[in-house]
């Protein structure tokens, strides 16, 4: 085939730009960050010596960044075409192009301000896309070359019969795959643009929002035991665990947000963001748990939430006496079923607008989510909530209950050891150990620890002002040099002692005692 050289270069180019498209899309969807290409452009600007940069700006004006991105795209385009040529020699040869490019993109993305490990994910996705697309595209070329070593033949049709030759069929499949990949990449690029623009805009709105009536959190002194290394009593929003089923978190402008409360009520309510702000806000500390948290696991956090009490809204709507559930629906279609009883008798069950004194982060439900103390998130803490139907459990099923999880989801009494960490080291002698314990809505009465299978001994606990949060605990234990094991258990204010029976998270939350192995070194 005469067009062979061209075909291999085209394969490299199409695969290359497909990788840029997927990485761009992931970057837009995942964060408000720039794509890896723009990150490279920014680092280039940052590393350019001042005088050179000034010269560039004076020549190019304010288009300097656009021009730079265009230049980078042309350069990587040439490299992609070259990678296609290399693929003709050996399947692994294009790695000489792709690996350095990925390293460059990853380095630029990680060098951005406030970057985390997650920022290299778009680059990784792009890299995998390169490999997959290039092998999809070069496979027909390779097939043709093998079947027909004289494939350079200018006449692709078998001169004897009129049957298409292997070369013709391979070329057809090459063209089809190339077109499909190019079209998918273009579509993904366009989608990334829409997603990125929407999210950026909402992020900006959120940043400029001032919420009257929202107070900054002040951690109550008695809420802490003052032991280094245990989880901070208030979990900062950016360290708060994040669980949801979305690929792209909904980006909702507060002015576009509306919540409809309907179903078994006397009066249907439709409330806007401003309506909520115009009400008296309730505020409180509430610890949120995920039902998927294994014993001792990290899927729990404690925050200061500000919002509108659900009980008030429900009273206004006039709930029928035979209703027992709320079916909550998120903007992304996720649903959960919440027992009504948990909402009407708790002043901190709310439609939350703020977390730790700031408007909710987008990933935690901006502009409005539900918070209900004492229930696992999957039955209550609907993020991006837009619809609440007052109903009966017998009338519906929700996202997770359809998948085998329990219907009601009360949080189970539990406790966790933070210090020492599993496999950690302490110095021998009298050691301070500690962690957290929770029995939301009921409260923690006591925490005990047992060293090396010995007797339970009491720990001190902190005394937060509410029973809706975790407490911190600390204890002093005498440890000889060597290996040890420590367990913890809590007792709630109803006298219930945390069970040692080990259960899996499915269907309604794990049980058992958190147990940590550590070693003590002679000091
Ligand atoms: N819209 C929506 N809301 C949701 C979920 C979800 O998948 N979609 N997951 C729930 C689950 S399982 C938990 S544990 C909490 C987690 O809230 P966070 O991500 O703010 O920590 O959100 C709940 N709200
Ligand atoms: Mo969860």
Describe the structure.
The longest helix has 43 residues. This protein has 10 helices and 19 strands. β14 and β15 form a beta hairpin. The protein has 3 domains: 199 residues, no CATH class; 183 residues, Alpha-Beta Complex (Sulfite Oxidase, Chain A, domain 2), CATH 3.90.420.10; 108 residues, Immunoglobulin-like, CATH 2.60.40. The strands form 4 sheets. Strands 2-1-10-5-6 form a 5-stranded mixed beta sheet. Strands 3, 4, 7, 8 and 9 form a 5-stranded antiparallel beta sheet that branches. 34% of the residues lie in helices and 22% in strands. The chain is α+β, with helices and mostly antiparallel strands. α1 packs antiparallel against α6 and α1 runs parallel beside α7. Ligand MTE binds next to loops. This is Molybdopterin-dependent oxidoreductase. Keywords: Membrane, Transmembrane, Transmembrane helix.
Describe the secondary-structure layout.
Blueprint: H1 4-30, H2 36-47, H3 50-60, H4 64-89, H5 95-110, H6 121-147, H7 166-208, E1 258-263, E2 269-272, H8 273-277, E3 282-289, E4 300-309, H9 310-317, E5 325-330, E6 335-339, H10 341-344, E7 350-355, E8 358-359, E9 369-371, E10 385-391, E11 414-419, E12 424-427, E13 429-438, E14 444-451, E15 457-458, E16 460-461, E17 471-479, E18 482-492, E19 515-521
Parallel strand pairs: 1-10, 12-19
Antiparallel strand pairs: 1-2, 3-4, 4-7, 5-6, 5-10, 7-8, 7-9, 11-13, 13-17, 14-15, 14-18, 16-17, 18-19
Low-confidence stretches: 151-157
What is the number of E strands? 19
SS field, number of helical segments: 10
- Rg value: 29 Å
Beta strand % = 15-25%
| Shape designation | globular
| Ends distance | 76 Å
Number of domains: 3
Mean pLDDT: 91
List bound small molecules. Answer: the ligand Nc1nc2c(c(=O)[nH]1)N[C@H]1C(S)=C(S)[C@@H](COP(=O)(O)O)O[C@H]1N2, molybdenum atom
State the order of secondary-structure elements, H for helix, E for strand.
HHHHHHHEEHEEHEEHEEEEEEEEEEEEE
Protein name: Molybdopterin-dependent oxidoreductase
Transmembrane segments: 6-27, 67-85, 91-111, 118-137, 174-196
Domain Oxidoreductase molybdopterin-binding: 250-395
InterPro entries: Ig_E-set, OxRdtase_Mopterin-bd_dom, OxRdtase_Mopterin-bd_sf
């Amino acid at each position: 085939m005469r067009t062979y050289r061209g075909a291999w270069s085209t394969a490299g180019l199409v695969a290359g730009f497909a990788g840029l498209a997927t990485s761009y899309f992931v970057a837009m969807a995942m964060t408000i960050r720039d794509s890896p290409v723009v990150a490279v452009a920014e680092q280039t600007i940052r590393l350019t010596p001042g005088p050179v940069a000034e010269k560039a700006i004076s020549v190019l004006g304010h288009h300097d960044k656009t021009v730079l991105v265009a230049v980078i795209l042309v350069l990587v385009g040439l490299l992609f075409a070259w990678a296609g040529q290399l693929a003709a020699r050996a399947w692994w040869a294009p790695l000489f192009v792709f690996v350095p490019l990925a390293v460059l993109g990853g380095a630029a993305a990680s060098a951005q301000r406030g970057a985390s490990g997650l920022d290299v994910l778009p680059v990784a996705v792009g890299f995998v896309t390169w490999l997959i697309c290039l092998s999809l595209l070069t496979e027909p070329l390779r097939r043709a070359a093998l079947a027909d070593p004289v494939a350079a033949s200018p006449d692709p049709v078998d001169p004897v019969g009129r049957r298409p030759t292997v070369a013709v069929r391979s070329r057809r499949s090459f063209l089809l795959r190339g077109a499909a990949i190019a079209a998918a990449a273009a579509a993904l690029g366009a989608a990334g643009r829409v997603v990125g623009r929407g999210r950026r805009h909402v992020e900006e709105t959120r940043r400029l929002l001032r919420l009257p009536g929202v107070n900054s959190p002040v951690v109550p002194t008695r809420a802490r035991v003052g032991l280094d290394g245990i989880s901070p009593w208030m979990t900062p929003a950016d360290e708060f665990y994040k669980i949801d089923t979305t690929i792209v978190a909904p980006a909702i402008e507060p002015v576009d947000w509306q919540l409809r409360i309907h179903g078994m009520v006397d009066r249907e309510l439709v409330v806007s963001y401003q309506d909520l702000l115009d009400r008296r806000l309730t505020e409180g500390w509430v610890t949120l748990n995920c039902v998927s948290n294994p014993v001792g696991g990290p899927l729990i956090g404690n925050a200061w939430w500000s919002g509108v009490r659900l009980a008030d809204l429900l009273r206004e709507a006039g709930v029928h006496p035979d209703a027992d559930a709320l079916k909550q629906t998120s903007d992304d279609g996720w649903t959960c079923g919440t027992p009504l009883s948990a909402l009407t008798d708790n002043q901190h069950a709310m439609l939350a607008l703020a977390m730790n004194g700031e408007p909710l982060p987008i990933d935690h439900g901006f502009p409005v989510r539900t918070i209900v103390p004492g229930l696992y998130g999957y039955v209550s803490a609907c993020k991006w909530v837009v619809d609440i139907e007052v109903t009966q459990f017998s009338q519906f099923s929700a996202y997770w209950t359809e998948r085998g999880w329990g219907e009601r989801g009360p949080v189970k009494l539990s406790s966790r050891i933070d210090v020492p960490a599993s496999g950690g080291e302490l110095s021998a002698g009298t050691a301070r150990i500690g962690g957290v314990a929770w029995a939301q809505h009921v409260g923690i009465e006591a925490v005990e620890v047992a060293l090396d299978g010995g007797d339970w001994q009491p720990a001190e606990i902190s005394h937060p002002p509410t029973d809706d949060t975790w407490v911190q605990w600390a204890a002093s234990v005498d440890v000889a040099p060597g290996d040890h094991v420590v367990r913890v258990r809590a007792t709630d204010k109803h006298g219930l002692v945390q069970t040692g029976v080990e259960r899996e998270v499915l269907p309604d939350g794990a049980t058992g005692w958190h147990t940590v192995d550590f070693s003590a070194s002679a000091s």
